[in-house]
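Model it.
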Amino acid sequence: MKEIKAISQPHMLDKVLMALHSLPHFPGVTVSDCHGHGRGRGPGGHYQPAPRNVFFAKRVKLE
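Modeled.
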């Protein structure tokens, strides 16, 4: 058995769960709410975090 971890946007959770449940021999899933941010590469390709502009986006973690 292999464990797969995925982080997704909350609005995609229903679609992902429906696709997983359609698989034969699907053992189950654990869903957790989480927050985070990426590297934030925008125009120019560099991101300098500062305490006032770091925000965390809502995500769901599936294991």
